[in-house]
Amino acid sequence: MSAPTTAFWLAHYDEVHRGSHAWLDYSNERVQGQSLSLALEALGSIEGRRCLDVGAGRGQLAKMLSALGASHVTAIELVENTVRKLRAEAPQIEWRAGDAGDARSYAGLGGFDVVAAVEVLQYVPFAPTLELLFSLLRPGGRLVGVIPNRACPMVRRPIERYEGRFGAVSSEELAGVLGVLPGLLLWRHKGLHFADDQRLLPYEVSAWSGQAGGLSGVPNRFVFVALREGAMGEASVSQE
Predict the structure, then answer these.
(1) The domain containing residue 197 runs over which residues?
(2) How many structural domains compose the chain?
(3) pTM of the shown model
(4) What is the share, in percent, of the chain residues with pLDDT greater than 90?
């Protein structure tokens, strides 16, 4: 992020973290819960893995990764006040204050088996940040993200409201960046559509697709996964 944009989001989320509900950017806790569960599903096996949570927010996903048996969890969060609180709450996790789009935030961390970027890529330059995060993976590792769909009418509102500080991507843009990552084994994405009847779950979720524009309808969000070549790779994402 540019310095003015970083300062804007730091001030914004410092206030949000102090005064809002725990679900932050989501409309309610059920939307957040399903989104995090879909990210965990895409991340695959966690036990014994080195994990990185980028844009950790209030730390829910990082704490889940630790509870699921990760050998080590590092979490990057922009709001320093939140990082200080999280260090006291969960000292087994390595909490770092940093800008998700700045390579300096990852200095000295080494490689990871799993990298998660949930609801953060819309605040940073998308393509270079995705390339940076993918470069942090060990052979066979996987990168998972959740990001708004630019084509969704609901997403256009924050794009217009924040005037260039908030981004989103189309299925085609996502495919264009993921498909050329150095060392890529495969990539897939799912579409999250708000259900007409949300009594059970807020989202209806499509099947995995590895084609640009291969999802039906206009999803509110995408879940995507990119696997790096290497011996540790898993076959849990359909290659159909």
Answers:
(1) 3-228
(2) 1
(3) 0.93
(4) 83
